[in-house]
């Protein structure tokens, strides 16, 4: 099969022929039809997040099951599926406690070493050299993943539209539902209207937020945010964004501010935009070593809550999200602004790095 291989920091992805990966116990192989281009991949490509090389990135996968491994039930060859970027092991202490979004084995084996839970990869060059997997290694024609990350796409839903549900949408849902517990009538700010930010805006509208304020430095992205459900927008390159958020809310500030980029400046805006007792939820994955500042006295005096959110609980929440898509309440396709062929994969990440992608870019394998 063909795969886009990451060989070194700041080097272009290289299309290579790898041996076809085969599923082992509790796993399936998926013929990939599309894969979203996520900012987390870009951090790895730029050396901002540590990951072994050579490796195959890509963790927003939609496709058809082409092979099932031993001990797999409930899934069949030919099923149309989408994957979650978190692949719960189902057996560690966090999974057993219902916190599978911070699965210990996922971080220890996959994110640290690029392997699945038998401490091995499924990807190899023709000469036998191992190639490491970022999640399921979806920037390839075929991917293998545990069944804990695989979900059938409902009838009537276009497979080409749902790849991003397993990462940007699932990440947004976890932040809104589990970290912040946004309720009908709440006011929210979304700082950085990229892929995850776009999903936060869409889902905040579904959750019934009364005010959804999108903050970004790009007027083009802010125009897109309005189409996705933002009630107000603020260009932080032109005005004091936190002051503008407070003005929009009558001097009060928002109940919840989501930081959706992983940057010091965006964290500052989120921190300064919330009402007394409000929540600052950090969702964006920052390059290693990125810091944000907090005045401890201000936290105590204003009773601020600072929370982190890595994602949703895949086995509980992915069916909920796909049901919302099937009912037309959530439209991930509306946040897809560009589609690239597989041979254009590097172009997709270059555009993402330049800040040109509104919402999500998707790479198609056909």
TrEMBL record:
Q: Which GO terms describe its molecular function?
A: oxidoreductase activity; zinc ion binding
- Pfam families according to UniProt: ADH_N, ADH_zinc_N
Where do the Enoyl reductase (ER) domain residues begin and end?
Answer: 8-363
- InterPro entries attached here? ADH-like_C, ADH-like_N, ADH_Zn_CS, ER, GroES-like_sf, NAD(P)-bd_dom_sf
Q: Does the keyword Ubl conjugation apply?
A: no
SUPFAM superfamilies, from UniProt?
GroES-like (SSF50129), NAD(P)-binding Rossmann-fold domains (SSF51735)
Which domain of life does the protein's organism represent? Bacteria
Name of the protein in its database record:
Zn-dependent alcohol dehydrogenase
Q: What is the lineage of its organism?
A: Bacteria, Bacillati, Actinomycetota, Actinomycetes, Actinomycetes incertae sedis
């Amino acid at each position: 099969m063909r795969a886009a291989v990451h060989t070194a920091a700041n080097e272009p992805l290289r299309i290579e022929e790898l041996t076809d990966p085969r599923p082992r116990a509790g796993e399936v192989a998926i013929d990939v039809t599309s894969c979203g281009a996520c900012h987390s991949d870009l951090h790895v490509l730029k050396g901002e997040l540590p990951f072994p090389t050579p490796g195959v990135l890509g963790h927003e996968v939609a496709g058809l099951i082409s092979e099932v491994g031993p001990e797999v039930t409930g899934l069949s060859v030919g099923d149309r599926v989408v994957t979650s970027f978190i692949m719960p092991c189902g057996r560690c202490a966090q999974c057993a406690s219902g916190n599978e979004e911070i699965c210990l084995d996922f971080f220890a084996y996959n994110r640290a070493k690029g392997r699945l839970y038998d401490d091995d990869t499924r990807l190899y060059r023709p000469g036998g050299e191992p190639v490491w997997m970022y999640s399921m290694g979806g920037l390839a024609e075929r991917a293998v993943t545990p069944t804990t990350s695989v979900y059938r796409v409902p009838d009537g839903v276009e497979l080409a539209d749902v790849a991003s549900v397993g990462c940007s949408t699932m990440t947004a849902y976890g932040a809104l539902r589990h970290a912040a517990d946004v309720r009908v009538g709440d006011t929210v700010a979304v700082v950085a209207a990229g892929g995850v930010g776009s999903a936060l805006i869409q889902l905040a509208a579904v959750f019934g937020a009364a005010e959804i304020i999108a903050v970004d430095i790009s007027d083009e992205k802010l125009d897109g945010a309005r189409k996705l459900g933002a009630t107000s927008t603020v260009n932080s390159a032109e005005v004091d964004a936190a002051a503008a958020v407070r003005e929009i809310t009558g001097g009060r500030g928002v109940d919840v501010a989501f930081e959706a980029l992983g940057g010091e400046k965006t964290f500052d805006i989120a921190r300064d935009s919330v009402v007394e007792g409000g929540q600052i939820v950090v969702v964006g994955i920052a390059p290693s070593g990125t810091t944000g500042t907090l005045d401890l006295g201000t936290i105590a005096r204003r009773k601020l809550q600072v929370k982190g959110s890595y994602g949703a609980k895949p086995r509980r929440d992915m069916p909920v999200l796909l049901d919302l898509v099937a009912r037309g309440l959530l439209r991930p396709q509306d946040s897809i602004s560009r589609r690239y062929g597989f041979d254009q994969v590097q172009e997709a990440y270059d555009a993402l790095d330049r800040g040109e992608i509104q919402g999500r870019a998707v790479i198609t394998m056909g």
